Amino acid sequence: MKVTLFITCFNDTLFPQTGQAVVKLLERLGHSVEFPLEQTCCGQMHFNTGYQRESIPLARHFVEVFGDAEIVVSPSASCVGMVREFYPRLAEVSRDPKLARAVAALIPRVYELSELLVNKLGIEDVGAYYPHRVTYHPTCHSLRMIRVGDAPLRLLRKVRSIDLVELPNAEECCGFGGTFAIKNADTSMAMLGDKVRNVLDTHAEVCVAADNSCLMQIGGALHRQRAGVRPVHLAEILATTEEDGR
Amino acid sequence: MSRSNSKFHIPLTFQESARAALENTQLRRNLGKATQTIRAKRASVVDELPDWQELREAGRAIKERTLRHLDEYLLQLEAAVQRAGGQVHWARDAIEANRIVAGIVLEHGASEVIKVKSLTTDEIRMNEALGQHGVTAIETDLAELIIQLAHEESSHILVPAIHKNRAEIRTLFMHTLGISELSDEPAELAAVARRYLRTKFLSVPVATSGVNFAVAATGTIAVVESEGNGRMCLTLPEVLISIMGIEKVIPGWQDFEVFLQLLPRSSTGERMNPYTSFWTGVHPGDGPQAFHLVLLDNGRSRVLADHIGRQTLNCIRCSACLNVCPVYERTGGHAYNSVYPGPIGAILTPQLLGVERAGSLPYASSLCGACYDVCPVKINIPEVLVHLRAQVVRHKQTSEGIKGKLDPEAIGMRLLARVFRSPERYEQAQKLARLGQIPFARRGIIERLPPPLNVWTTMRDLQAVPRQTFRDWWRKRRVFGSVPKADADGVGDADGVDAEAAAAGRRNV
Ligand code: SF4
Predict the structure, then answer these.
(1) Are A141 and A211 in contact, with CB atoms under 8 Å apart?
(2) Cis ω for the linkage preceding B452 (within 30 of 0)
(3) Total-model pTM
(4) Measured between beta carbons, which residues in chain A are less than 8 angstroms from residue B18?
(5) CA atoms of A85 and A77, how far apart (whole Å)
(6) Which chain A residue has its CA at the smallest distance from B486's CA?
(7) Contact between A182 and B460 using a beta-carbon 8 Å cutoff
(8) How far is CA B470 from the centre of its chain?
(9) What is the rounded average pLDDT of the residues B97-125?
(10) Within the 97-156 window of chain A, which residues sit less than 8 Å (CB to CB) from chain B?
(11) What is the ipTM of this complex?
(12) Which residues of B fall within a CB distance of 8 Å from A50?
């Protein structure tokens, strides 16, 4: 199958290794990956902060870039959520029926990575090998917005040599929330503090999630504390095989 | 009395008030414990019902249909109440409502009124308004009484004293009720309150209440409570004044089937609430001999007119959203500076007051969505939050003139939107970010940033922008055909150094 990658501006700029992992993984599973270089940003930050008008052109750009794709996949639950949940609203606000039609036609073809693998392709064992103690943080948007359910866990459970441990209060928000972390810095830190405490309680060496934004928040605090736990995106674990020698 | 210093004037932003609350470790502990307990209880009783999702959908549908024909249902309610011997008053805002209530109280020559716990009367600051006429309003709900005696504001819509523990309540009772010996056993604390309240129930001639539901077809009013104190207020006095927001009307009796399942399970985690009182008009020789119903708008018809905000009026004030909200759990209710705290407060208050007066509240959420999942009437709180944020921004841009235009956030957002509109500008910006961070980045990590970005780096390190973006990697890969093995897992790269830096940074942060 031909899969078109929506990397997200955040991953493109800050976490290129996540995108590389997605490419490696999908190609290993026998799919071909396309990457339209015209892509930029889905507009989530603008939309969530209240700059709705400013995010309309970004939605329009997204639809232009990905409109013809057979399947769009993204290693970010929150950006997929933006497209799926809020693009119809943006189309409504813009009063552009053409945009509304394009959005409606595109949405059923947009998937988050674990959704694509488990729900669409029916794969749980991707042949990965990862000999580390890992705890999984289900991000709010993967859990409650796009509802990936336990797809990431199903994939992780099939990873060879992994020591998967449950995170206490896993479903509670890490306090990132985009500009929330800046606008409500004190509250964000209080939430983060509790999340980090829970991660440390697991004695895991790796904290995994399906969104690098949340991982940046959790990982940022873990690193500040020199806690010895590294944040790793789900795609990177799934892409790792025995031949990689780690 | 500190009750006068906030409620519906928003003196501080959420951020400012939250900062103070977050410092209070006792409050954090009390709140964390209480919300976790009630969360678990709710989850277990909700799991018992196989048709919970259908019930939620039914609740939402009834509310939505009622709101669509609100004018008709209200007129129907008015006629039914009058038929049953009650009087109906319409109040556009808090001032009108208070004038009506005070008028009735004074007419009966009362200097005290007893109250059933009610958010609506808090919303209009009725106690204060009555105080100005020399009338004392006495709270009879145990938690409300605690708050009243402590001269504090409520911090939870259902459990107003949730931020206090037993030891704190014991001390409060000893000081305010003049008791010398008292333990912190709940039974003993309740007994003290009971003795105090008994004298009031038996002597005060006028009572006020809120309304949980009002049946349009029959004019029947319902109040749902846990302690029975409400029932005393509803039956013992001579005069009863009930004040309801206009959205509390439901069409008919059979609608209770849905709401009396949804409400107690969502709010206190009980299968059925202990006391549900219904009354219709007046009955000679039985209960209050005069009944007044005040229908309060106070901004609600404006909320109704907004097609996204409207769902806020579905709310049955169960408080489930407060109990699951990670923001509320840490800041408590006072940080919201409103009688309606938590997620529901973050959307209701700015709509009732206008975003220009409560513009920080729609941002008091990380949009985690936990509130939407538990809401028994399916209010999509995150959707309303972002809708209101858009109004805040629009207000800033259109009515604050040059100040709004020069707002650094607005400038930044406009600039970024411009960047994202063009792939060329976007790639230039990526390069600029890499250059701009040079003074701050060490071994792929940024530990300190200048204001305002230092907000991030006070508690967290930041991943530096690696030298190679994903798109750069992709381009090279295309040029070189298939990627050398080491590259594919993101460690190696066509020119080695870049991806190594990326990987180093990534693995550390
Ligand atoms: S918004 Fe929903 S969950 Fe929150 S108090 Fe109202 S009905 Fe309950």
Answers:
(1) yes
(2) yes
(3) 0.92
(4) 184, 186-187
(5) 11
(6) A244
(7) no
(8) 42
(9) 96
(10) 140-141, 143-145
(11) 0.96
(12) 362, 386, 389-394
CB B381 within 8 A of CB B343: yes
Report the chain A residue with the minimal C-alpha distance to residue B397: A51
> DSSP letter at B281?
S
Closest C-alpha residue for ligand 1 atom 4: B321
Q: Determine which of A5, A6, A11, A14 to mutate to test the interface with B (most B C-beta atoms within 10 Å).
A: A14
What does the mean pLDDT of chain B come to? Answer: 90
> How does residue B484 score in pLDDT terms, banded at 50, 70 and 90?
very low
Residues forming a β-bridge with A208: A136, A232
Token pair, residue A221, equals: 């605090």
Residue with tokens 């959203």: B321
Spatial separation of the C-alpha atoms in residues B394 and B84, rounded to whole Å: 48
Distances (CA, A) of B186 to B160, B191, B198: 16, 9, 18
Give B486's contacts in chain A (Cβ within 8 Å).
none
Write down the pLDDT at residue B481: 64
A188 CA from centroid of ligand 1 (Å): 23
Q: Torsion-angle region of residue A50: left (phi > 0), alpha (psi -120 to 50) or beta?
A: left
Structural contact between residues B445 and A223, judged by C-beta atoms closer than 8 angstroms: yes
Torsion of CA A25, A31, A37, A42, to 10 degrees: -70
The C-alpha atoms of residue B415 and residue A58 are separated, in whole angstroms, by 13
Give the single-character DSSP code of A150: T
